[in-house]
Amino acid sequence: MSFPTLTTERLTLRVPHLDDMPAFLAFCASDRTRYIGGPHIDARRAHWAFGNITGLWILRGYSAFTACRKDGTPLGFVGPWYPTNWPEPEFAWTLWKPEYEGQGYITEAMQTLMPWAWDTLGLATAVSYIDPENAASIAVARRLGGVVDPDALTPDGGYDLVYRYDGATA
After folding, report:
1. With b meaning 16 or more CB within 10 Å and e meaning fewer, what string describes 35-64?
2. Of the candidates 144, 9, 122, 149, the residue with the CA atom closest to the CA atom of residue 69
3. Crossing angle of helices 43-60/21-28, nearest 10°?
4. For residues 82 and 88, is the Cβ–Cβ distance under 8 A?
5. Whose CA is closest to 127, among 96, 87, 156?
6. Secondary structure of 120-132 in HEC code, one letter for each residue
7. How many CA atoms lie within 13 A of 57 on its CB side?
8. Which of 54, 125, 133, 163 has the greatest number of C-beta atoms within 10 Å?
9. What are phi and psi of 110, to 5 degrees?
10. CB atoms within 10 A of CB 72
11. Separation CA 125–CA 118 (nearest Å)
12. What is the pLDDT of residues 112-165, one digit of tens each?
């Protein structure tokens, strides 16, 4: 099985490697997870999440990429990913350390990844589930053309904002 690698001016987007695990586990143990089920996701759940993200590459043929700087430093996950119990695919992102914020990495990655998802995967639409208090991710979703969809289902019936992206208008 072959997996895609996408590149931007500053980033390489690749399938997750086991070498990404320490950075991901540190992220999961931090307050940075406050918008995705934390703070402080325990190690057992973090290992499960990493396995779920990587396993979806086999099950669906796509999942979140690890976004890396050109020097190989993993910055976080960016995706179209679609857990088996979710209502639809999500364009999701995480930055694992605070010093990576405010540098446009996520926007840059997603501006390459989204056209790939429309053209290669054939996705017609996708969403981002965002905590209403996560101002940084809301700003990214808006920059990427996301529009709030009040009728969209959420994975757990929660109160996330749902930003929708339409491949036909991209």
Report:
1. bbebeebeeeebeebbeebbebbeeeebbb
2. 9
3. 130
4. yes
5. 87
6. HHCCCEEEEEECC
7. 17
8. 163
9. -70, -30
10. 10
11. 8
12. 999 999 999 999 999 999 999 999 999 999 999 999 999 999 998 777 899 999
